[in-house]
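EI: anyone free to look at a 186-residue chain?
SC: sure, send it
EI:
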Amino acid sequence: MLRPMTIEPERQNGVGAHDGFQRLWTPHRMAYIQGENKPTGPEAGDGCPFCGIPEMSDQDALIVARGKHVYAVLNLYPYNGGHLMVVPYRHLADYTELDGPETAELAELTKRAMVALRKASGAHGFNIGLNQGSAAGAGIAAHLHQHIVPRWGGDANFMPIVGHTRVLPQLLADTRQLLADAWPVD
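SC: here you go
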């Protein structure tokens, strides 16, 4: 089960008195800040991470489930613990470019993601959506991906609002395993 994290006060280091501040270290965010894993262009061969992910093992890629046309993967830079994305294997940018089987499977894996997140983490609700184009907030606009963000009552505390920092209580690999174990099968 995903659990909240406590922040420990920094211990006195022998150089001076404790300053009373608590510190939350999030070094994994530096990759996102510096634009790591961003494609260099709009084509599949331009370093699109969503095209490379399926070539990796589920554990290394943080893939929770694979379908015939789409796969579900944890977001490397999540808004909340358990933030998943459902991504078509085919490199396309716009929802209207999906064919019928891709559209149906994207919807089906989204439903299964919700079931798995409720089972693994007791999610109270979800934000589900597609950001179509960089003007709409798509970090990787060239490859369609649908976000499934679990939400809990009170999960928007002072950290994201004042500190512009999300607190994630669990390693992504551990979250991936919980969700893979909770994933519903046919």
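EI: Residues 100-121 form the longest helix (22 residues).
SC: 👍
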